[in-house]
Amino acid sequence: MALIEIKDLTKVYKSGRSTIRAVDGINLVVEKGDFLVVIGPSGSGKSTLLQLLGCLDKPTSGEIKIDDKEVNRFSDARLAELRQNKLGFIFQSFNLIPTLTARQNVEAAIAKRGKGDKNKALEVLEKVGLAERADHLPSLLSGGEQQRVATARALINDPEIILADEPTGNLDSRTGKEILDILKNLNREKKQTVIIVTHSEYAREFANKVVEMRDGKLQTEKI
After folding, report:
1. Taking every annotated instance into account, which residue ranges of this chain make up the domain ABC transporter (predicted)?
2. Could you give all domains of the chain from N- to C-terminal order, each with its CATH number?
């Protein structure tokens, strides 16, 4: 059974008199344990696709199934529960709280989810290679280190699915590959499903499945 299945997925925006089909009739299957990379230029619709997969937005039409459940029919409360318990999000902007240390930024995510084991913050920081910088403020961390904190924050609830929107966009290629390597190790060791949208061509080498996106449509699929 597919972990994620989307059928005829479409998202339409109105801009004045214009209609923008950001996602245009997409069909895609993601199996448990996949490392899927969606590559495309800016404006191709890939970030909109990720927002739909992450239940952060609702499609205009089409179907999204996660664990064979049609999630686009869920109530807002049920969607919030799904995001908290099954999904982990990593974004291009680190979105760290500047007055909190690395550990506290991760702990804040635990508190938000109502989970009490604060020691887990240090455990996930260790997974991303940043335990020794746990008590540093974001201003004292490099861009790559801040992205590691953001990655640790996404991992704190042991998500079955990790969704990453341009996680290497603010990083040089060497540091970007280090972040992707962390995600690949999690994918390999814990069988977590990873979906990344990016314009970085080097992300292909980490994937077992690659799709290219342009003008709201999937162009090719490579295994």
Report:
1. 4-223
2. 4-222 (3.40.50.300)
